Amino acid sequence: MSKRTKFLLGIGVIAALVIGWQVAAFAVHDTGKFELDGNATNGAAAGDDWDNVCHQVLGNDCSTSNNTTGATAVDWVSEPTLTTSIFTGGGSKDPQDINNWAYKDGSVPDKDNLLHSFAARYTANGDEVLFFGSDRYDNSGDAQQGFWFFQNSIGLGTNSVGGGKGFTGVHKNGDLLIVSDFSVGGTTSTISVYEWNTACTKPGDTVTKPGTPPKTYTCGDANLLTLATSNAANCGSAAANDTFCGIVNPNTIQMPWSFTDKSGTTVPDGPDPGTAPDPNGALPGEFYEGGVNLTALGLGDRCFSSVASETRSSTSTTAVLKDFTLGTFGNCGSNVTTTPKDGAGNAIPDGGLSIGTGSVQVKDSANLTVSGTTTWTGSLKFFLCKVDAPATCTSGGTQVGPTAGTTVTDATTQPIVSGAATVTSAGRYCWRAEFISGTTGVPNGSDSSATECFTVNPVTPTLPTTAGDDKPLGTAVTDTATLGNTSKQPGTPVIQVSDPPTLGPNAGGTITFTLLKDDCSTTAPGTTPQTVNVNGNGDYTASVTPTEAGTYHWKATYTPASGDPNNLGSTFNNDCSDGNETVVVQSVPSSMTTAQSFIPNDSATVTASQGGALAGTVTFTAFESSDCTGNVIHTEDVDLTGNSGQTETVSTTNTTHSTTATNVSWRVSYTSTNQAQRSILATCLEDTTLTYHQSGTATSQ
């Protein structure tokens, strides 16, 4: 294999760099990450080389079996043929946006014909460093070359532009252009670093960029802000703090990949005479490589998606562009993966959470991955939505956390946990995490996938009930239900970030008590289901009066308030099997005692010896005594008919006046209406003494 030598592309003098940037702590040529030594093969110097990049991209050996060590982005592109993709049209110049560029298949001068281009990015001692290079078909003449690093993805289109086909994608402020002028002899006239900046309208404009302190730069052309330039930036002799440098191969070298230049150059294989030469030789000046410390130039936060290597007619910003290669680079991207958590930060179970007594705290946990750069910033916002399945929180929702989001950087400890949100309603909820990139070239990211969703379940209230005591028929029976484990109804709004949250009213609705016969289906006679309004946990009682004796069973059913998702309905003793819910309505026992009484009656016989037929009235008066004094219980006048001559008997007809007195006496008088016969004054003529006998009390069975 040929010996490596370093060849001067220029003299690196940091003082010669024009237009201020902060001096990097580590020189780009000796970071230890990559060899900038004028060849493409990994050797004795520390770090990777282009053979490692080639192997990583192509997957074949590229004269090595090793990929890079820690490159965050790589590119290696081979031109299919010498006449593939050259610039055409007047709009194909660096100050023009990419939608003005045009390409076609065709030929360019051999010295401007690129065969391969390559790039790699590393983080070195905290700095973002970028390495780039190319090889060309012929070294017959000096060459000027540019390297574009695009934040947007750039590709080859099929639309017609300027006599050729157009490109896809456009510039974004912050795109990077490095222009180098080098000679076969190895001297470098210039290396200039530009930033695409639409604040530049013409050469000589000045643009002040924010910073501490702010810095003012001069525009090299429309849309091209000059960040730095040097005519002495050789990687072989650069100072210890060089910010960028370049180098070409000083001698013929063997390329680690398939390479055939115009001369078909080969390289002698070792010191022994007569050995076969190795192919893939590159003459001096056919290989170029360089590097730039992005962080030192204030570009460390850029992420580049595409890279283009171009040959040019000069280093002028308006130079005619000739050949180019185009490849993908950093695959800049951001990925947010989130996992819902409970208020304590634990994973939510598959079955979801319970609304509990009316609220439950939840959080979101996000893992943020940024590809294409190791240095990035941004903010992360969390949103929570209440949705119906299978919807997710693709937009809207309640923001949880600062309005501007939580500041995140590559140094932020992950996962990143949101603030707490309080959910006051059962249902399906989904989180959304949005990453808003603060790094040029790194896209925003979001996660609103179904894995961000979880369920908050309603509670099933408890409803133990206890029947009151057995009661006799005609008396009300009662049942008491103890409603428990209820949740408050949803608050307003349903999702809250305030502390403490505002909860809704107590559980409402009704408890319906039904008294059933022993068949557990027929309502007890004389009763109807009784409904009691509910206000949260507590005891609720019903009372009904059956009209038939028997054994009955209470059943209680809780029905939540209309529109309340937090409480489920529940029924207690639905099958009438709970003994505590049985009540007996008893028939009334009876007993019987006797008490004798009698209805007194009397008769009187009136006699007159002569004077014709009797005529007049007999008056009977009964007393509850033995001497015709005291309480009168019956008085009756009975007229004589006169049909019996001088003797006639008359009687009382008492059927209603009874007595339980032991003595009854009668006072009787006769009032004659026959003048021939005299009246008889009232006389207490008789009394009765009674004896009562009672044998006890008779009772029902």
A few lines on this structure:
The chain is built from one helix and 48 strands.
Which word captures the global form? Answer: rod-shaped
If you average the pLDDT, what whole number results? 89
Flag low-confidence runs: 1-25
Strand content: 35-45%
What does the main sheet amount to? 8 strands, antiparallel
The side-by-side strand order for the widest beta sheet comes to 11-12-13-10-9-6-18-19
Tell me the Rg in angstroms: 58 Å
Distance between the termini: 127 Å
Helix content: under 10%
Topology diagram in text:
Layout: H1 50-58, E1 73-78, E2 86-88, E3 102-104, E4 114-124, E5 127-136, E6 143-150, E7 155-161, E8 164-168, E9 176-182, E10 188-196, E11 206-209, E12 215-221, E13 224-230, E14 244-248, E15 253-254, E16 281-282, E17 287-293, E18 306-312, E19 321-328, E20 333-342, E21 353-354, E22 360-371, E23 377-387, E24 398-400, E25 406-409, E26 416-417, E27 421-423, E28 427-437, E29 445-447, E30 453-457, E31 465-467, E32 471-472, E33 477-483, E34 495-496, E35 510-516, E36 530-533, E37 538-544, E38 550-559, E39 570-572, E40 582-586, E41 591-593, E42 603-607, E43 616-623, E44 632-639, E45 647-651, E46 663-672, E47 680-689, E48 697-699
Parallel strand pairs: 21-30, 32-40
Antiparallel strand pairs: 1-4, 2-3, 3-8, 4-5, 5-17, 6-9, 6-18, 7-8, 9-10, 10-13, 11-12, 12-13, 14-17, 15-16, 18-19, 20-22, 22-26, 22-27, 23-24, 23-25, 23-28, 27-34, 28-29, 28-30, 31-33, 33-37, 35-36, 35-38, 38-39, 38-40, 41-48, 42-45, 43-44, 43-46, 46-47
Overview of the structural elements:
- This protein is mainly beta.
- The protein has four domains: 14-34 and 69-328, no CATH class; 333-457, Immunoglobulin-like (Sandwich), CATH 2.60.40; 465-588, Immunoglobulin-like; 593-689, Immunoglobulin-like, CATH 2.60.40.
- The strands form eleven sheets. The chain has an eight-stranded antiparallel sheet, with no helix packed on it.
- A hairpin with a 7-residue loop joins β46 (663-672) and β47.
- The chain starts with 49 loop residues before the first helix and ends with a strand.
- The model is unreliable at 1-25 (pLDDT under 50).
